[in-house]
């Protein structure tokens, strides 16, 4: 099955993070997850920098786009609370694998990648044949996902762990079967706390 997601990224004031958590937990999450066809919502944040990412998931692009008018006021209020503008991106959830129940993961490492034109299928193959096997033996690894925007030539790999110690055990290099490094087109990498783990996307892996 194909699932789609939309991420809203804020770089706000660190001192406003807790107010943002409270708004998203008490008001935004119930409203968004109660919308027709919503598959869930997750929030990750870096308390020190004020870096904050809200992701929602939908079964079709039509359902995702139909939610825009209802989500826009929530997004704007979030930005006002955080003192930040927002960057919005839409994605195909190209792969998802979990080893955990939702409450086990506490930390997330996110890597943004540049994908060459026509290279979407290659990054999906790399994720399933190199990244996931490389993570499987890491103690404290909870799960990983791959988001892909073929039109913009961007991808995001998120790796969830149960502690900072587990994050430290993540491999620094992941190689494809041909010896080439996965993620040579890395744009940025950042570590976050997993604040709201309510993204109910099912596992998506090759058949």
Please provide a brief summary of the model:
The chain is of the alpha+beta class and 207 residues long.
Overview of this structure, please?
By secondary structure, the chain is an alpha+beta fold. It has one domain: Alpha-Beta Plaits (2-Layer Sandwich). 29% of the residues lie in helices and 37% in strands. It contains five helices and eight strands; from the N terminus they run βαββααββαββαβ. The chain has helices spanning 17-33, 61-66, 68-82, 120-136, 164-168, and strands at residues 3-11, 40-46, 51-58, 86-98, 107-114, 141-149, 154-161, 186-199. The chain has an eight-stranded antiparallel beta barrel with strand order 1-3-2-8-5-7-6-4. β6 (141-149) and β7 form a beta hairpin. α1 packs antiparallel against α3 (68-82). The longest helix is centred in the first third of the chain and has 17 residues, at 17-33. The model has no long low-confidence stretch (mean pLDDT 88).
Q: Strand order, main sheet: write it out.
A: 1-3-2-8-5-7-6-4
List the uncertain runs. none
Estimate nothing, just give the exact number of structural domains. 1
Q: Ends: how far apart?
A: 11 Å
Question: How is this fold's topology laid out?
Answer:
Blueprint: E1 3-11, H1 17-33, E2 40-46, E3 51-58, H2 61-66, H3 68-82, E4 86-98, E5 107-114, H4 120-136, E6 141-149, E7 154-161, H5 164-168, E8 186-199
Antiparallel strand pairs: 1-3, 1-4, 2-3, 2-8, 4-6, 5-7, 5-8, 6-7
Helix pairs in contact: 1-3
């Amino acid at each position: 099955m194909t699932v789609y997601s939309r991420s809203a990224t804020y770089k706000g004031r660190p001192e406003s993070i807790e107010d943002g958590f409270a708004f998203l937990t008490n008001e935004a999450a119930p409203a968004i997850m109660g919308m027709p066809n919503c598959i869930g919502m997750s929030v990750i944040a870096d308390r020190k920098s004020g870096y904050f990412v809200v992701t929602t998931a939908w079964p079709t692009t039509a359902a995702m786009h139909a939610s825009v008018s209802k989500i826009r006021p929530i997004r704007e209020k979030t930005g006002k609370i955080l003192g930040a503008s927002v960057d919005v991106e839409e994605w195909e959830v190209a792969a998802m694998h979990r080893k955990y129940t939702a409450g086990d993961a506490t930390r997330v490492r996110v890597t943004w990648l540049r994908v060459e034109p026509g290279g979407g299928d290659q990054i999906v193959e790399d994720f399933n044949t190199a990244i996931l096997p490389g993570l499987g033996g890491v103690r404290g690894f909870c799960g990983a996902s791959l988001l892909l925007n073929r039109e913009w030539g961007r991808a995001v790999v998120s790796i969830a762990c149960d502690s900072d110690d587990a994050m430290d055990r993540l491999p620094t290099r992941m190689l494809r079967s041909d010896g080439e490094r996965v993620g040579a087109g890395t744009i940025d990498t950042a570590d976050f706390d997993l604040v709201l783990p309510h993204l109910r996307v099912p596992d998506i892996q090759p058949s």
